[in-house]
Amino acid sequence: MAVPVLLVLELCFLMMGGLVVVVESFPFSEADKIAWLPGQPFVGFQQFSGYVTVDDKKQKSLFYYFVEAEFDPFSKPLVLWLNGGPGCSSLGVGAFSENGPFRPNGQVLVKNEYSWNREANMLYLETPVGVGFSYSTDASSYEAVSDQQTARDNLVFLQRWFLKFPQYLHRDLFITGESYAGHYIPQLAKLMTEFNQKEKLFNLKGIALGNPVLEFATDFNSRAEFFWSHGLISDSTYKIFTSSCNYSRYVSEYYRSSVSPVCSKVMSQVSRETSRFVDKYDVTLDVCISSVLSQSKKISPQQVGEKIDVCVEDETVNYLNRQDVQNAFHARLVGVNRWVVCSDILDYELLDVEIPTISLVGELIKAGIRVLVYSGDQDSVIPLTGSRTLVRGLANQLGLNTTVPYRVWFGGQQVGGWTQVYGDTLSFATIRGASHEAPFSQPGRSLVLFQSFLQGMPLPEMF
């Protein structure tokens, strides 16, 4: 679709400090168009990927993967997806393990029938620099990276991404993600609302936060009760885990390299009882066991649930490290030898985790931005009980009355989870049987939740 030259000129003037660039009347995005990903099945929608420079001096370039909606993309909203970590890839985790159009399977890709691009145009961003294919030519860009810097870079990314795709400029925009994106998303959304007070650029309608870190102590200390209630730790260990040293204290000490003897003892006991062979991100799901002696020998894990590959992360790493795949993605490795799921060169300010973002969520609600907090109910890392407590407390603080009382919701003919809605802007939901990465372990139910979120409708009450 041709892009009006005047629109592009207006965008350049707005976002580049008055710099006007003369362009041809075709999309800047054409150079980023993906002709074909190796091993992919035939699809009718377009894909794009490439780089957006967010700091010209340090050549900080963020890598994105954009998938247009499978049906009628011109009428569907734009959704930005962010994974957490901090430092983990939205391409490798979000797109290729959770809600993207394909899943890697050996040398080929298989279609994900529950892909979120059935309902929206999906934009996956590898952020901050140093994550995945994102890079900087200045190694200092990887040092002491903070939430504040990440939010600023993400804002610049969106501003300049619209130069490539101006046809999406006034489209309804939603931001979704999980885990540490509970920090990334509210901080980015806050900057977007502040920018809009000067120049209306972002048509932000809502944010959805999956198993998010919103308030350090509440989120982390709900882990002990989850472990105990699911039989992962004993009564005596639960007692010391809630009295002698809770999890937030341990993490705080660990990040400061000053773990006390009492916390060291408690965590050793907790780790011994929970076992390293249980996936803490889904206590019901088997782990992927790869041989450390021979990379060519792989033990096939038991398949749990419908179409769940617990070794999908290994498959993704292998796929994204193929040269033909990187060529198709217009991607390059700078300063690293391999693409990895979570960055090993990024030095993040981990103490930022202690800064609450639940207050920012409240500010967004006051600004009219819809908020959904959802939890995979088998996740022990950021358990549903902490998220539910924080949402209820925020609703009370804002004076929001319950408009949908706590009830079950349905995905097909089965209970998909539980939900409660406050006012017309704040919702909480669980996804039954889902992990920390809910679209991975419960793709069908997650898609139902995503559909309802985009439509601003309560989750289905009946099947």
Description:
- With 463 residues, the chain is α/β, with parallel strands linked by helices.
- The protein has a domain at 30-215 and 348-455: Rossmann fold.
- Helix content is 34%, strand content 18%.
- It has 14 helices and 13 strands.
- The strands form 2 sheets. Strands 1, 2, 3, 6, 7, 8, 9, 10, 11, 12 and 13 form an 11-stranded mixed β-sheet that branches. A two-stranded antiparallel sheet has the order 4-5.
- Helix 4 (181-196) links the parallel strand 8 (173-178) and strand 9.
- Helix 4 runs parallel beside helix 11 and helix 11 (358-366) crosses helix 12.
- The longest helix has 18 residues, at 147-164.
- It is globular.
- The model is unreliable at 1-26 and 290-308 (pLDDT under 50).
- Gyration radius, rounded: 22 Å
Number of strands: 13
Question: What would you call the structural class?
Answer: alpha/beta
CATH architecture of the domain at 30-215 and 348-455: 3-Layer(aba) Sandwich
Tell me the span between the first and last alpha carbons. Answer: 40 Å
> Strand share of the residues?
15-25%
Summarize the biggest pleated sheet: 11 strands, mixed
Give unreliable regions as ranges: 1-26, 290-308
CATH class category name of the domain at 30-215 and 348-455: Alpha Beta
Helix fraction, binned, reads: 25-40%
Structural features:
463 residues; alpha/beta; Rossmann fold; 11-stranded mixed sheet; two-stranded antiparallel sheet; 13 strands; 34% helix; carboxypeptidase
